[in-house]
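Here is one chain, start to finish.
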Amino acid sequence: MEFEGVHHISLNVDDVEAAATFYREVLGLTVIERPDMGFPGVWFEMGAQQLHLLEAKDFQAPKGQHFALAVTNIISSRERLLKQGVKVSEPTEIKGVCLQCFFQDPTGNLLELNQALKSKAG
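Its structure:
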């Protein structure tokens, strides 16, 4: 089996409309066509990958589980979220690897902003 990369991430949300508004208006993701699957959901384009939101009433996000969004400037990306009323942690560094900070979607799913640090060897 040869993996080519990640095709999509699927997240359960308790209110697909509220979550879709957040991902579309706050994060700026583009909605893409989703076939009728018999239950509420929405799909987004996310670079070469996709994000699939699936409505699951009374869903509670698991603690600590998250995915990371690569950004080139964590400070400006964090500021953009803060200006839209999103609570975002202060950036912290994993020494020599990345800067990271965290926030939640309306359901409580944890997301990370991740800015890779340039290698000192190159």
